[in-house]
């Protein structure tokens, strides 16, 4: 009897040891990352291009941003603090070094990204990427994908709805259709006109050039007096336009139609460059690229002037906007700035 009791005790101890070591015997499961915002699991984050709101965990109304995400060279950019907050980081975990122009985010990993450098440093390890942080109107924007992935998220893009979806790595992609519907329905605030109905952008253009813009259909426009263009036919002149409902800004460099000596006209493209530099102050290289093309278009038009022999239209994309360079009618070249 005593022998059987001792055998039972030995078997019990062996079974306990087997259970304790079972976790070392079974194969390891794929890592699942949980990301928290104020101690709550962040299951999904949805951004939409051009919409100054984002949605966390499908909760609407969304969180308001003071500036909307935009696409630049195929990547989505979001203001650094809002991106960090959306991905579960408190403000104390997001810092900015003005001397080195470097943003640091401390989450699942410590990420560092520097303005103008296509590189992300994760826990001290540098990795080259295809998009660099940008500074626009004194605001730092980071490429959302690389930040989200570095903080433990998977990232999806829907081109049809222009939305970015982030969810914790290792988990199935959540259903965010309700959040997308909400962001699609957000009404964008329109530019508020002044007391006389003139929009602020029109006033800024007036101050920039020292001219007066007047209503022209649904737009505001400046056309030089006919007597001026007749008197100074050896010079090009410019036309301005602005449509408040769409935010469109147009700058046209033209010549007087009755001037037969078009090849002798002195072309001044500085109005286009002035507007581009004002609209995109942190993109001097891109502005130069656009202006180089605009000069080619203008010179080709002066050379051939027949419409079908002019250079084709070309569109440039920057900071959520598109800039269309075109020559038509009596314009050497026109620049049309609108939302992307």
User: What is the CATH fold-level name of the largest domain?
Assistant: Copper Amine Oxidase, Chain A, domain 1
Name the structural class.
alpha+beta
Total number of strands: 23
Question: Which outline best applies?
Answer: elongated
Strand fraction band? 25-35%
Give the biggest beta sheet. Answer: 7 strands, antiparallel
CATH class of the largest domain: Alpha Beta
Biggest sheet: strand arrangement? 17-18-19-20-23-22-21
Q: Round the Cα radius of gyration to an integer and report it.
A: 29 Å
Low-confidence stretches: 3-40
Count of spatially separate domains: 2
Structure description:
The protein is an alpha+beta fold and 340 residues long. The chain has two domains: 36-185, Copper Amine Oxidase, Chain A, domain 1 (2-Layer Sandwich); 200-339, no CATH class. The protein is 27% helix and 31% strand. The chain is built from nine helices and 23 strands. The chain has helices at residues 2-20, 22-25, 80-86, 144-150, 177-185, 200-209, 226-231, 270-279, 284-304, and strands at residues 36-37, 40-41, 45-48, 53-56, 63-64, 70-72, 75-79, 94-97, 102-106, 110-114, 119-122, 125-128, 134-136, 139-143, 153-158, 163-168, 214-216, 219-222, 237-243, 248-254, 314-318, 321-326, 331-339. The strands form five sheets. It has a seven-stranded antiparallel β-sheet. A five-stranded antiparallel β-sheet has the order 5-4-3-16-15, sandwiched between helices. A hairpin with a 2-residue loop joins strand 1 and strand 2. The protein is elongated and about 70 Å long. The N and C termini lie far apart (87 Å).
